[in-house]
Write a structure and sequence with these properties.
about 375 residues; mainly alpha; Growth Hormone, Chain: A; 19 helices; globular
């Protein structure tokens, strides 16, 4: 039964996540069609992350009150709807509005999925790591498919990819058994300790670092003379690395300490970003994926360890705060690219990573203040 839950939740995550990873490879096509700057193109990603984050806290609270299944169902239904609408958006303004709604739809999913997995599995690091394998697999395949579809049929059809997965995931979620009896008397305010606030602040910088690099990585490849196919491949390679990273590192945090493993992996990912400045992108992009993406499930496994029964609501709070501030990263880095070039965006990203590593050291791997 628990592995049926894992497969269902993972497929839903694939639908939610793929609606974001199809965007970076097609940004150059959107820039050309609507004659916009990279700042405005980055604002599309920022808009998705912004509303994704704003819905997290209410989603976590609703999950604790009504259970996971209704929230997962709503999220996938609206993800399906708005990805289809984006594929027919007639203007940049309409695309921007629909991106905001898509972010809200996908944001509903996260707290409910973490809550369901945290109460189903004892080894939370492994469960969340294996759950992320679906994201990594989608990150390998979907950017390449999106790039090929955009090049041959137009960027709009690329959004049919997450719509199809959302439809399948929605069907499976509706077949899950009824949730546990909802929690009563849960207070998010009492659950937010100083330790949680430190972890939240660190996560803001991790989110800013990762998505700041990832959103413009295909565009950076194009600026270096890579073809559309090769730039789409550059966008996929980090997820191939993360697939390997999560398979072999998913339980490392459970065994050796989550904070210690996150610190090591993050530092290595920063070295990979530095190598992107002057070397071919394929190998550094692979190392970046192996080390950076597995940090995310470990962060939320650490959150679940610290917060206990309030894992869904607290995870929603941390993800909301982290994504809300981190959503500014693509817009800000897009502006740096417009003004100073692509090297500035990578150097700034490494600075953000340094701040994350410093803050993480202040987090206690327990629920105490």
């Amino acid at each position: 039964m628990k592995y049926r839950v894992l497969i269902t939740v993972s497929l839903g995550w694939l639908a939610v996540f793929s609606s974001r990873v199809v965007l970076p490879p097609i940004l150059p096509f959107i820039v050309d069609e609507f004659s916009i700057s990279f700042s405005l193109a980055g604002l599309i990603a920022t808009g998705i992350f912004l509303t994704y984050s704003l819905i997290q806290i209410p989603s976590g609270i609703l999950t604790e009150r009504y259970g996971e299944k209704p929230i997962l169902t709503l999220s996938l239904a609206f993800t399906l709807l708005f990805t289809l609408l984006i594929s027919i958006s007639p203007s940049y303004s309409m695309l921007m509005v629909l991106a905001l709604f898509l972010g809200s739809a996908t944001g509903l999913y996260f707290p409910a999925s973490v809550s369901l997995l945290a109460r189903t599995f004892k080894e939370r690091g492994r469960a969340l790591g294996w759950n992320d394998l679906s994201l990594n697999a989608g990150g390998i395949v979907f950017p390449i498919l999106a790039g090929v579809i955009a090049m041959n049929y137009g960027w709009r059809l690329s959004f049919l990819l997450p719509a199809i997965v959302a439809l399948v995931a929605l069907t499976l979620v509706t077949r899950l058994e009824r949730d546990r009896k909802p929690l009563t008397g849960m207070s998010l305010r009492r659950s937010i300790t100083r330790n949680i606030l430190m972890l939240m602040t660190a996560y803001i910088l991790l989110n800013s670092y990762y998505w700041g690099v990832a959103v413009f990585l295909p565009s950076f490849a194009v600026s270096r003379g890579y073809s559309t196919i090769n730039s789409s491949l550059v966008a996929s390679i980090p997820f191939g690395g993360a697939l390997i990273g999560n398979i072999f590192l998913g339980s490392a945090g459970d065994r050796y300490g989550k904070k210690r493993v996150i610190t090591l992996l993050s530092f290595i990912s920063g070295i990979a970003v530095f190598l992107m400045l002057r070397y071919e992108l394929f190998i550094p992009a692979f190392i970046f994926g192996v080390t950076a993406l597995p940090c995310f499930p470990m962060i939320f496994a650490l959150t679940a360890d610290i917060s206990g029964d309030s894992a869904g609501a607290v995870s929603g709070f941390i993800n909301a705060s982290g994504t809300l501030v981190g959503s500014m990263s693509p817009f800000i880095l897009g502006h740096l690219i417009d003004v100073y070039g692509f090297d500035a965006y990578l150097i700034t990203s490494m600075g953000i990573l340094g701040g994350f590593l410093l803050l993480l050291q202040g987090v206690k791997e327990s629920g105490s203040d």
